[in-house]
Design a protein that fits this description.
Elements: E1 3-8, H1 12-27, E2 31-32, E3 41-46, H2 51-67, E4 72-77, H3 78-90, E5 95-97, H4 105-114, E6 121-122, E7 128-130, H5 134-137, E8 154-161, H6 172-176, E9 180-181, H7 184-196, E10 201-206, H8 224-232, E11 239-242, H9 252-259, E12 267-269, H10 277-283, H11 289-302, E13 307-314, H12 321-334, E14 338-343, H13 361-385, E15 390-401, E16 404-410, E17 416-420, E18 429-439, E19 442-447
Parallel strand pairs: 1-2, 1-3, 3-4, 4-5, 5-7, 8-10, 10-11, 12-13, 13-14, 17-19
Antiparallel strand pairs: 6-7, 8-9, 15-16, 15-18, 16-17, 18-19
């Protein structure tokens, strides 16, 4: 039995694809081992969202080679799409799988081991190449799926790929191609299989989730709200979460539809990137700060104090101190429950990389630290507002503190809480009142 190890870099979509490839390997008879162990095959699902992600992707490929020089090294994913020729010419991977080609992993490995090179194109360095320019070549949704969750409680389900937005800082439309949506029947089949395996919570995710269905014929289109309504009918699924959304999808109609589905968690990630209109314009984000605020207000009309989280980029080219302070003030106005803060990373191939006014790293670090402090204050305030509230928690794993046994899980708003219990509670629901702070960001829930 050959041993295989996988390592994922990047977003939740990448994580889903890595889990799907792991299941493919298991079904083909491979033994899965941790990445730090010696294996016969190493699969690195790469990321290319920033220059740092590129560097990490290369580092992991080199690390796998050092771990076992005789292993088959597989490079897959977005870095392949942006730097595939470099990977091939340098010979840092034996197999190169682009986006929309991960489904071919087993057949390409078979070709490698069986020397059936008619199944793949081989270049002079004997690297097996199964990739293409995703920007032009990826027209169909790649059919990957899972029949069992990697964990016992929550599963990510990819329903969409690609992006048509072309934000000025982002390489992903070039690495992932145009919007492609998964058929509703395929989504439901996977979710039913996951539910049968014991999964109680699913997170629908995609590269640009808000675009789900927009590539279909308008007369036959299933949009995201309609897909959610179908997922909501799967009995064994108790909770539904959504991945990152564009703010524009949140209309009165959309919010009302979701509010009518009790399984949909009041936890929404709306990408912001900047609270300054002038920076948003340079980013090609296609909305203003006030428009973004309106979408948050709509959610708060239909859901009682929902968790609204976001992403922000600091140090975008030309960002002045006043523009940055606009972002800080706007973030406080929005009262986010959590913020993911990124220092702008110059990305070759994007419009922003050629813009004047590139910001020094020291300035980015100072601004990032200031916004992070505000974010932590808002997150703490949000968690404190839940003290005294009744909540249902999906318990996930044991936790010991001061000699006491607890099980931790998340509320519908994705606030982490603990329930004291001396017996096995993994993947069970607990209902009670949040009584106060326990440790770190963890709160205590006392069951009724």
């Amino acid at each position: 039995m050959k041993k295989a190890a996988l390592h994922n870099l990047g977003c939740k979509v990448n994580a889903y694809e890595t889990e799907a490839m792991q299941q493919m390997l298991e079904e083909a008879g491979y033994q899965i081992v941790p990445f730090q162990e010696r294996a016969d095959v190493y699969v690195i699902n790469t990321c290319s969202v920033t220059n740092i992600a590129d560097r990490k992707s290369r580092q992991m490929l080199h690390r796998a080679r050092r771990r076992n020089p005789n292993a088959v090294i597989v490079a897959a994913g977005c870095y392949v799409q942006t730097a595939g020729q470099d990977i091939i010419m340098e010979g840092i991977a034996d197999i190169v799988l682009g986006n929309n080609k991960k489904k071919n992993l087993i057949s390409v490995l078979d070709a490698w081991y069986g020397c059936r090179m008619d199944a793949a194109k081989v270049n002079n360095s004997h690297t097996i190449c199964d990739w293409e320019d995703c920007n032009d070549g990826c027209k169909e949704y790649e059919h990957l799926s899972m029949t069992r969750p990697a964990g016992h409680t929550r599963a990510f389900v990819k329903v969409q790929d690609g992006c048509n937005q072309f934000c000025s800082y982002c390489i992903i439309p070039y690495a992932r191609g145009r919007v492609r949506s998964r058929k509703p029947q395929d989504v439901l089949a996977e979710i039913r299989a996951l539910a049968a395996g014991g999964c109680q919570e699913v997170v629908l995710t995609g590269i640009h989730l808000s675009s789900y269905g927009l590539d279909e014929d308008p007369a036959q289109r299933t949009d995201l709200a309609a897909l959610l309504a179908q997922v909501h009918e799967v009995d064994a699924i108790r909770r539904i979460r959504l991945g990152s959304l564009e703010p524009g999808i949140v209309t009165e109609e959309f919010a009302a539809a979701l509010a009518g589905m009790p399984k949909v968690c009041p936890h929404f990630h709306l990408s912001l990137q900047s609270g300054s209109d002038s920076v948003l314009k340079r980013m090609n984000r296609r909305y203003t700060a006030d428009a973004y605020a309106l979408h948050c207000e709509i959610l708060r009309r239909y859901f009682l104090d929902p968790a609204i989280t976001t992403d922000v980029i600091v140090g975008f080219p030309g960002e002045t101190e006043e523009e940055f302070e606009e972002t800080v003030r706007f973030a406080r106005r929005m009262r986010f429950s959590e913020m993911h803060i990124f220092k702008y990373s110059k990305r070759k191939g994007t419009k922003a990389a050629k813009m004047d006014g590139q910001i020094p790293e020291s300035v980015k670090a100072r601004r990032s630290a200031k916004l992070a402090a505000a974010a932590e204050e808002m997150a703490r305030d949000y968690r404190e507002r839940l003290v005294g509230a009744e909540r249902t928690v999906l318990l996930e794993e044991p936790f010991v503190l001061d000699g006491k046994q607890y099980y931790t899980g998340f509320t519908e708003e994705y606030v982490k809480v603990a329930v004291e219990s001396s017996y096995e509670r993994t993947n069970s629901l607990a209902h009670g009142k949040i009584m106060g702070h326990l440790a770190g960001e963890l709160y205590i829930l006392v069951e009724f």
